[in-house]
Design goal:
Layout: H1 2-12, H2 16-30, H3 43-52, H4 58-71, H5 75-79, H6 83-90, H7 96-113, H8 122-125, H9 133-142, H10 153-161, H11 170-180, H12 188-199
Length: 222
Amino acid sequence: MARSFVAEARKRVGPKRLRVRLIIERLAAAHPEATIALRFRNPVELLVSVMLSAQTTDVNVNRVTEQLFQKYRRPEDYLAVPPEELERDVYATGFYRQKTKSIRGTMRLLLDEFGGEVPRRLEDLVRLPGVARKTANVVAAELGTPQGIVVDTHVRRLSQRLGLTKHDDPVKIERDLMRIVPREDWGRFPHLLIWHGRRVCLARTPRCADCVVNDVCPASRI
């Protein structure tokens, strides 16, 4: 499916490197409020929120962290309670044992090697337990130092539909996007696709008639 989108894109809507700037401009105008849905007040809360968001919704994470962040304010706080207590506190996010193990390991490494501060560099972030490239990309971008492009299910689907990639693998999709998306847009580009994917370019029934980029989208039904 993705390959046919790319082939059609070349014939019908022009080179992706030229289209991507127009796509960003239009989506930014259509979704000016496109930002991360997770609620946090500092880098440690951001990191914990993103770690907890695996396999659950942002709404659910925000519901849990509303109380969690009143109790745990510093990296030391996550290590000051028994693991079982932290497990109970994050239970509602699912996979609570693994998440607790990852959070405690991360906090220990932050204290041991980073002075209790969340690092900004991607190569440092991915050293933290439970922090893979996607999580690291989210954290780095939200801290103002994007070094890659976040690829979630929405970014993957819309990138394929828009003919910006022919791949299914998130790593390869990210590589394709990094080549064509202006670096200054690496942070906001995923948010624009995520918001558009949730509101207009739905997985099963895309609302092409309401889409601001349907004329430059090879998958458009218009």
